[in-house]
Fold these 2 entries.
Entry 1:
Amino acid sequence: MTTDTILPGTTALSPSRLLWQRLGVGVVQSVLLYALHRAKVDTVWFDDRSGLYMALLPIMCLVPLQWVSALGTLSWRQWLSGLSLCSIAVAGLGAFAAWRQLEASPVEAFGIVPALFIVQAMMLAGSREGRVFASYPGYFGIAWKLVMQLVLSLAFLVVLWSILLSGGMLFRLLHISRIMDWLRMPGFYIPVCCLGLVVALHVTDVREGLTHGIRQLVLTLLSWLLPVAGGIVSAFLVTTLFTGLQPLWETGYASPMLLGTAALLVLMINAVYQDGESGKPPAVLQWGMRGASLLLLPLVAVAAYSQGVRVGEYGWTPDRVLAAAATLLAGCYALGYSWAVFDTPRRLANTNVVAAYLTVALSLGLLTPLADPARISVNSQLARLENHAVTRDEFDFDFLLRSGRYGQQGLERIARNAGKVFPEKAVHEAQSWLEVGRGKRRTWPEATPSRADIRKVLTLLGQGELPPRFIEKDWRLEQVPPCIKDASERCEAVLLADAGQARQLVLFTESMSPTLYGEQADGNWRFDGYLFIPSACREQVKQALAARHFQSIEPLHRDLAVDGQRITMDPPPGRAQFSCKESRKN
């Protein structure tokens, strides 16, 4: 029979009393989240365009969970002082997010999660050891305990809802649908999620041996994947010496892939090293850890070079600011781990602590005016327009309109043109976009024939010329490849001729699924669909299309018209896949 013991640094609370306190926090969280939901639905405090909802949501989701996790570990003085400061900080960041007047996505709204997690782990580790700065094993143990608690709690929540939904479906078989109606009600699923998560966090906290055992198993399994990952990355880097970096630039997503690979290597390196005091791992893992540490430098260097080239040519955008922050953090790991290879493995621990502080600083910087991606991007694009690095026709006014308060200020700055630094045409268009943002216009500013500059960013493969009506069409409110809206993007297209309908088609080849646009009977153009081609065959298909080695054929299955409505017939999986091998035979 297992017994619950009080760990060093924890408060002397019985598990049952601790559970009731945590349930109390869960009840308060449920009430606050339900009130927030009702306020959004009834538009009491804000409308859908306000950033206040996405500012308050992370406060009510994250702060109570942070308080629940700290109960029983921190003393009451530490609990109230430390967590109150964190709560005030989150509330301040939420207020700033609302002030930006930017429709933040959930990813942006919950960007404070890494910083909160690190601060929580440091507070709990310091409390256990009775000092402000804990030892690295203390940080490591608490951080992984929190990770395993969260994973197990979310798994518990998934199983709980699986049971509830299964019960609702069983009663529906008896023509009793009230159960399923209850499950869909915010007044039911909000408290169930909050209280279920609290109970799971409590159980995994008082049964710490459970999370410790699972942690060791997970880290052991991950550690043996390090030699495999290191071998693959080594082969990739050696191959780039022969192919060059151009294939990477052509993908359009080289930096995220390289940084993601670096993050996986960091995770598996730490799976081998762990807290640095668990004994030496096998020799093959030690050598794998050293080799992977050295591989981080070239990966991060190529990612940084790619981002530098894009920023130098097209300026900053929010995505590039976030990528730069991720690259800076990855560079910290790469330099620190490389240093550890030539000095002592203990430098890995020092690097992890420094990277943790850097993560907190970056998170706070990105969520405050100091390094707000929207502010940096707007200023960068305005500077490009002011310095004539981009013309009025290439400038993305829609981006300013979507950039909240900073974009609004940017449009006003162009419209005023106090220093006579912006082109006169840009001033008039900025005034039109301001009217759109203020609701005085229901339509977007008219596109002008100067959009023919699209030829600068679009490469037409093979013979032919883009139809004038395709170029002159205003694509800003429609689905279209990025290069049509953003002058910083590049793309390739092939001009096709649909013999069956005597109309022109334009196929954009620079995407995972090439997109097709067709001319309609009235002369307008619209999106027609995708071509599903395996990535390995994409270059071959592109060359064949450019050489005019294609013909229009009947579809495998004709569509059906049922009661006057068209039903599309899709081929079975695998039947319509393109085969590179068969194409070569032809």
Entry 2:
Amino acid sequence: MLYNAVFSLDELESIKLSKNERTKDLLKSVLSEAENVKGAGEGASLLSLGFAYYYTGDIKYVEKAKEVMHTVCSEDKWYHGGKHGGFEGNSELGSSAKTKFMALGYALFKEFLTEDEREYITDNTYKKGIMTIYEDWILPDTRIHSIDTMGHNWWIACVSAGVLAATIMKDEIEKGEELVRIGCDCCEAWFKYEGNPINTKPVNYDEGGFWEGLDYINYSLNEYLLFANVYKRVFGKHPFDDEEIIRKMALFILHTYYPSDKALQTVPFGDTNGAEDMSCPALMIRYGLDIPEIIFYLKNRVKYDRDKFTQLLIWDKVAESEAKAPTETSACYSKIGWATFRDSFENDSTLLAIKCGDTWNHAHADATSFVLYKDGALVIGEGGGPQSYSVPAYQGYYVQSIAHNTVLFEGKGQDYRDNYKDHVRVPGRLVNYKDCDGFRYVAADATGPMGRYFRKHQRHFLWIEDIILIYDDIECYEKGTVNYLIHEEKEITPFRMLTPCEYEIKKGYKNKSSEINCEYKSYNLPTGVEDHAKFVSALCLDEGKEPQYEEFEKYIKVTYGDIKFYVNKISDGRVMHKNCFIEADGYKTDATILIENGGKVAVVNGSIVRKNGKTLLGVFARINGYI
């Protein structure tokens, strides 16, 4: 029967016999949703109506579903028409939603439809849904989009809906099998897209990390997996060899997740409403993938999820499966400019997340921004985040550099046009990532995004034991004031600005508000023409320790307990054809940062270290890490 494309009667029988309390709660929620469908046209409700009918046998759910489908079919068109979302066409996200739910409804209720009703529903779905999508997005003779221009979440959402419907209705529509094959090829091309330097378009997925952030990796993967699950149940195989990329995407979701019993928290970069609607992890398990890390994720965030339907179908399996946190406690996605470091995956641990990549659409103008979670809370946050174009302050504040933990020049950050033109022309980047033997490091280079003000802007993040040292090395074109912004979520936080400089309190917005409702700090350093501004700051993870700061002609010394940092002020490109040696406390080195930690010595960007004339490091090219 065609309903097997969605679920089987054996699965429903298993749910009836389940002793798991979570499964019982999910069952009540799904049946309640079906019971409370208010009016026709609620396409998403077709899944709950279908489940409710096959679970209870009550024909009232069939009648309501038929009402929904007939109402959608009676609409003149399944798109907003004209210009929508910045482009012209006959299909967009609204039409993709109607298309997929009409197809799922048809699969669930086909046997209850008369021949005329079947023809009416398939004909409307084909003309208003499937073919408008294929003509706009897929077929070469009519296609108006390319992955290079619309290759973010819209592409996979629209294509997946079209090929899902074609899969379910393949025997009732013209060239159904051919449409399915072409649609599968299109999905594969989207996942494997490597970017386009002419259009400054980034890779879609960098080892599983999606450049538009968590809400949009969830949305795009959710739409694909809805289709892929149906395809697998119909054809007995995957649409293409997609398992490796989905596993990598699963790990990206884990590395940007902060476990806590106090609140559901995920890395907030870009447009995001949080992750309560994160439905794609459950769909991964539904797809038959054995991913212990996703089991860990689902079990740890159980009370927050809203995706009741898919979770109901899988929860007994989840409850019986092995859960395992990722073995790696850090990750760097250098092609999209995201990195995370944490001390563990235990609840309420410490997580540092850094972003320095593309800016466009849902990716904000936030090169070098960072956030810190500690003790179950976001303690260093940011003002960005609301996925709501209707908020008046959205374009002027939330997506701009000023809303993030970035550096400005004379109060100005990245060009505001980066968000709405053809991406930032020279994206930020993360380089020299390393996590080994307690040495955690990455450098964020925002020289491109801030190129109209800075000849150079590099921000170094160095995590050693219970301190995270942050060193900003900036060279300005013009005389002016450099502003270091920090958005603290609490009155007392681990953040310390060590460089002597004045700060001022600024007013901002939070939580989708367009009324001033928060404060943040701007630390200010004046600079001359072609001068350097250098900020040394720290995140002190031990409340009982305070760093000591000393500044000398060529270097800065920071002492934190038994750890000493020597920041090389002249390792900034100012000397040509000569090495940038400093001498400090018996050390002679060319390293950008030299670290002494209980008898061990480490370097950031160093090739030579001598202590009292004895060579500790002597390599031909600079390295990072303990020596």
